Amino acid sequence: TEEHKGPVDNRATFDRLFDSLESGVPIGIFPEGVSHAASQMTRLKTGAARIALGVAARRRVPVVVVPCGLTYVHRHRFRSQALVQYGPPMAIGDAWVRAYAADEVGTVTRLTERLREALRTVTLNAPDWETLRVAHAARRLYKPDDVRLSPDQWVELSRRFVERYLVAAGEPEMVALRADLERYQSRLDALGLRDHQLRRPISLARAWGRIFWRSARFTALVPLAAPGALIHLPVGWVAAASGRRLSEDTDDVATLKVMTAVLLLPAVYAALAAVVAWRFGPWWALAAAVFLPLSFFATLRILE
To answer: How far is CA 23 from CA 10, 17, 64, 220, in A?
Structure first.
């Protein structure tokens, strides 16, 4: 197709997708076609629109496209919360089919643009990460202390702050506000503080209570994490080295690291359990099989 370098024949793939949809099996498509670490959606490929229109043109089953957005609350953290949002279903009806028969390329382009607009309503987009960082700081300062936001409220409020900022980005007051927010966030980062720690006074007794509780949790987790560190640290090093060697793209490196660890850890656990069973017996092997995942979890909690 025109979106690939050189000729690519994907008719067989499309035929399989058409057969799946016409047999009642839904399919999921990432229409950007790539994994990336940008602060907003990249240009959509036309494949999703071509499949939807192609199946609708055969008139064997009704075609409905459901936009789906993924937003990570803290994308840089392992095991971060993720919000999955669905937009209103888009029926590919007779009007789309007639337009597709009259102008295939133009109709595919128009439907791709409609899909892009629909996906923007269920995703959080900003021109750059700095703008998104400023919007998050504004949202946190705007939210009252006694209000807890659900993930969908968190994303929607952030989306509104970004949208309104972009409308007035060039105005002097907005430029000054952004500079203030950036300085505020930089000072928070330098001091290792969060907004709520500045808003709520804390007594000395409560501060010592928190120190004691966190120290107790840390002390309880260390005996579990320390023995497993001899196993997990080399696996982590191999995963990191593999990611850097196989790709230079930031998002690809992160994906490769996770995939390497997911594949390598069970193999290492199985090998160690086999060695323990050979040297000490099956019951000790069972104990090792239980202890190693617990040690991994303890390590994660300490890092978090």
So the answer is: 20, 10, 14, 54
